[in-house]
Design a protein that fits this description.
The chain has 293 residues and is α/β, with parallel strands linked by helices. The chain has eight helices and 13 strands. Helix 2 packs across helix 8. It starts with a strand and ends in a 6-residue tail after the last helix. It is found in: Cytoplasm.
Length: 293
């Protein structure tokens, strides 16, 4: 039985790509009973005995999946944040990073519109960039002028399944269109009255860009931490995860515990204060969330 990857899901049909081409398939009736929903990005076994329509017989084990948008086996998330219009927000960036880290997806930080900054603002952004690089994150920047520096992103796409995530109005769809003009994803200018962008995508689809596959719908349409448990949060901050073995107490949450290696690193300025403040904010957000039933 051939194996392929689901490239698009639309109206109950799954479009599976294998070496011989793309086949329109349905899921087995048994899937519904077993509560299995095939997702874009899934590797599947399928039957193509009928030339017009195939059936998916097995969904291979996923290494991760997202609920919004529904997609599986993502290798990386390119997180697009703007330096200006809308203004750069480290809090928002850290929120995206936590969501990405919780799914064990590799993040790439992409700061757009850096040419719009004043000299003082540029200095601050460079300091923030450096602090993220020291944690181990890949950070790239681009200007609004001609988009030619988007070429620096191309090596990241090769042989990966990627999602583009970021705040409204930072140009996620425009970025994809510049990388692959054939996409022509529908975009809207930032609404001046609302100060935010709009995006309309009707289904999830993987499109080919620079030797890799990219979801043509923005990742993380919800920025809530409703899928993250409190004890998982410290591991979503790599600089904390790296030090947890040195804490006195196993399962240290790095809040009030004595002899905490993370708090010591904070005092020694080995961990940035703003990152720790965001961690504490997220900690209380998850701790105070209403129980799910």
């Amino acid at each position: 039985m051939p194996e392929g990857k689901i490239m698009k899901a639309l109206s109950g049909f799954y479009y599976v790509k294998c070496d011989n081409g793309v086949y329109q398939c349905r899921g087995r009736g048994l899937f519904r009973k077993k509560n299995i929903t095939p997702l874009v990005g899934d590797v599947v076994e399928f039957d193509i005995s009928n030339p017009n329509e195939g059936y998916i017989y097995e969904v291979k084990k996923r290494h991760n999946q997202m609920r919004r948008p529904p997609i599986a086996n993502i290798d990386q998330a390119i997180i697009v944040v703007s330096a200006k219009e809308p203004d750069f927000s480290a809090l928002l960036l850290d929120r995206f990073l936590v969501l990405v880290e919780a799914k064990r997806i590799e993040p790439v930080i992409f700061i757009s519109k850096v040419d719009m900054l004043s000299e003082q603002e540029e200095k601050r952004i460079k300091e923030i960039q450096e602090s993220y690089r020291q944690i181990g994150y890949q950070v790239e920047t681009s200007s609004t002028k001609d988009g030619s520096d988007l070429q620096q992103l191309i090596p990241y796409f090769s042989d990966n399944i990627s999602v583009i995530a970021g705040q409204s109005g930072v140009g996620k769809s425009s970025l994809l269109n510049k990388l692959n003009p054939l996409l022509d994803i529908e975009t809207n200018e930032i609404s001046n009255s609302l100060g935010r962008g709009k995006h309309t995508t009707r289904h999830v689809e993987l499109v080919e860009i620079a030797g890799g596959l990219v979801a043509d719908t923005p990742g993380f349409s919800s920025l809530e931490f409703d899928e993250i448990e409190l004890e998982e949060l410290p591991d979503c901050f790599p600089e904390m995860e790296a030090r947890k073995e040195n804490c006195k107490f196993r399962g240290c949450m790095h809040i009030n515990e004595p002899k905490c290696a993370v708090k010591a690193a904070l005092e020694n300025e080995e961990i940035t204060e703003f990152r720790y403040e965001h961690y504490v904010q997220f900690y209380h957000e998850i701790k105070d969330r209403k129980p799910r039933y």
